Write the structure tokens for this entry.
Amino acid sequence: MRRYLTWRRALAAAIVVIAVTAYFVPTITEGWYRDRLLKALEDGLGRKVEIGQTRFRLLPTPGFAISDVRIGEDPSIGQEPAAYVDTLVARPALLALLAGRFQLGSVSLEDDTGSGISLNLTRVDSDASGTGAVRWNFSTLTSRAVSGAGAATGLPTAPPTAFPAIHMSGGRVNFKFGDTKSIFYLLDTDVDISPSPTPNGPLKITVEGQPARTDRRSRGFGSFVAKGEWHPADHALELDVKMEKSELSDVLSLFEGGQSTLLGTISGDAHLAGPMSKIGITGRLNVGDLHGWNQLPPGGAAWPFTIGGVLNGPGQTLELVAYGAGKPAPLGARFSVADYLGRPKWAASISLDGVPVAPLTGMARNFGIALPADLTLEGVAQGTIGYSATIGVPEMHGQVRVSNAMLAAQGTPPLKIAQADVTFAGSSIALSPTPIVNDAGESAAIDGHYDTVSGEFQVSLTSTGMSIASLRRQVSVAGAPLLGLATAGIWSGSLRYEHPAASAASSGATPPPTSGWTGDIHLKDTDIPFEAFAQPIHLVEADATIDDTGAALKRVSLTVAGIEANGEYRYETGAAHPHRFRISLPSASAEDLEAALTPTLSRANILTYAFNFGRVPAPDWLRNMHAEGTIQAVSLGLAGMPVTNLRTTVIWDGMDVSLTGLTGRVADAGFTGGVLIHLAGRQPRYEINGSLSGFAWQGGTLTAKGTLRTSGMGTDLLRNLKAEGTFTGRKLEVATLNPWDSVEGKFDFAFANAIPRLRLSTLTIQSAGTKWTGGAETQDSGQMVVKVADGSRHMEASGALLRGEALKLVP
């Protein structure tokens, strides 16, 4: 008998049947279970659910494929849906179907079209009843899971074995606080929850994800994996959690309910085991790269901790203890939090037992405090610091004592601190008065106070006499006036720095409180560099008063490059000319003043001039210099000629210096006028306008009025000198004949080929009752040739007048 049914034909027939079924069944069954599935979802979730097309499929696995699923939010939480799912595949339990019951065996959240899977975990600060309760949107779901879905619908509660397997791959989990979505979220989150095939068997749980931020372009930073089992019979949990290196601020934001300003990294692993009301925790934790929001991570090795604790799930409490390396451990920490899914109430404490304080300088730099790179701190700390956030403003408590400390910086002697006590109370951190001693046995005392909430900060520094070099690097960082600028000397007195609370600065007070230093100090043998001078200003003695308007120095005795002076100085903040001074010079020479002021007068060498194509860039300090004051000198040597009783008012604006009201005496002659000094070029330019009266010369007196211009330094001043003006003279014995009873005219003076050239024009001479008119001019030989006439007679005479010689008639 011929066999028509072979295994090949049977296989081909089965393939045809499966193919036809896979093609037609989804079409034929479309919509059959849509309403039934939608109702089951809404009843189980207790939320409004929107679904798209519902189809039964055979491939790749049989099940109901529901597209475009939106799970609505609890109205008391918000309006945005709690979940967006591209495709939800519900697979019935096979044994239940054979028994005639419709029961879900598994639920998969899939992304078939690329639109993604997104879940929103939302925390609200108060519910609709206005009781001020804080809760998460999944709290209603967990309560339904505990009581059973049937309890919400009035139906019998399903046994634990009826719990379907849940799978999600590549989903995104967002965290919301009210209507604000956090920049922190979980990326590529995989969830697998698989029930046991046996009644009351363990429920296997696996969760894996990558923390990420919306303000970063990278996809994620670190990851975590949690694997374990939930045992329904005794309500126990066993879970292993591993966290790769992640951002500390993102972890803290889950507890604080907002973005944390403490940045760093955290990683570790932990094992959790025990009943839900008492889950034991053991593990390891690494914290590193602690820094402020505006600083770069410092790098370096992380701090390892061993952790242990207890978690009470139903009671929402967590207790953790962490210990550093070493036996006994010098560093320990305790952390506790209650109501962590509602309004967290947490507390933390750190215990120090001989902990080295050397890393504190690095941590301070990480948080934006501008400490010198070579500043080091040695010593040990003991005590406890507590921090809690229960109701209202977070509070601190505790006390830390730093012993045998030494503060040092390169190039300065170390400062010794035998003992420093720091107290933490509420939002306040206070440093008790602490002696600081240098290597010479000189001491100062420092104390301070800082409020972490208001930002108010105060620090005081006092001394009966201490070397400035001991504190130079430290006070320069703090911006202390005068002391921060000085490089050597002795100071005594007291200084105080105050930074007002943020609320006070924005209260609208007139004038608003400002940050700054105040105090009274005495300076002795103090060197203060100033860019205008070739050498530092040496304060022999000075009394300084510092307030919110500026700084004032009185009873000042000083030297600059060997020039002695005394007077007063004041810096007035916000004034058009903030630098105000009064300087008195007992004796000085123009040459010494020029040498002392070389950085101001000559600001570029030939190379700088060439590489800047003839332009000389002005330094910032010169462009920004605005000063006003008076200078007087008992005696000033000018080209070998003493000028006495010199007085003038100085106005300095950037690259222009004006000397007004200039008066002085040259021998018995008096000078009045003014000087303009221009500093924009390589060399200074001078313009002098004034008059000289009663100058004794050739047995008589001269009076002159005019303008003198020159530029350069040293001998160049004489070579570049040009002068013009008018003059008169009385009783001058310049000739071998009769004296000049009077003389007047105009003069022009300049150097040509290193030879002085004097030209006199409109010359009028009265001599022995005769009026002579004409002119005079120096020759290459240095002789002055005078040519005059009285109308009928001509007279010519010559002589080296500039060298004091008498004129002689020329035959």
Remarks:
- Confidence is low (pLDDT under 50) at residues 127-132, 144-161, 293-298, 609-613.
- DSSP finds 14 helices and 44 strands in the chain.
- The radius of gyration is 46 Å.
